[in-house]
Design a protein that fits this description.
This protein is mostly helical. It folds into two domains: about 50 residues; about 160 residues, Orthogonal Bundle (Lysozyme). It contains nine helices and no strands. α4 packs across α5, α5 crosses α9 and α7 packs across α8. The termini are far apart.
Amino acid sequence: MPNMERLRATWGGRLRVFYLGLACIAAFLASVQAIDAGRMFERRSIPRVVEVGPEETSSHMPAEQRAVVEFISKRYRVAEAPLSEFVAVAFRSGREMALDPLLILAVIAVESRFNPVAQSEFGAQGLMQVIPRFHADKLQAVRSQAGLLDPEVNIQVGASILREYMKRFGEVEDALQMYGGAFDEPTSIYAGRVLAERNRLDQVLQRARKLAKQPSQMS
């Protein structure tokens, strides 16, 4: 009997050491997993910030449009990144509506100075200062929930209004006076401001075209 008791005591001690060892290993593995999980959480929760320069945002644009973006950015002190989008939409809307895109940009310059969240005391909104209650049909045609403070929607609606006035009156000056709410103003000050800005943009465009042709002429 004493030998049996010693045997039980010996094996009992060995089992306790064995289980204690397993417990230590399990605790070590759990701590390693916790550290890895914490590192993974940090990698996912802190995104890497990528700086994108103005030259990259407009690199896909034709040289002529890039020149217009650079000119407007300096003249009105507006960042080139959003301007690239505004200019691209203006040129696209001009093609779709058979409308001069420089005229669209000139209206934006006079109306809002390229501020997409501009709002007047009369309720005109966005880049082209469209009054929603007067042009609800055109807003519905765009089929967007974003509203007139979305630059693309605003330019599309504003260009559509301008095209409608062009068809109605047949003259650019009259259409612009109507757009600016100054149709009966005899000196056409509003139209003059828009057309002067359009001419500045056209000069920028023509210079860019000449520069683009120079390498091919030299070769």
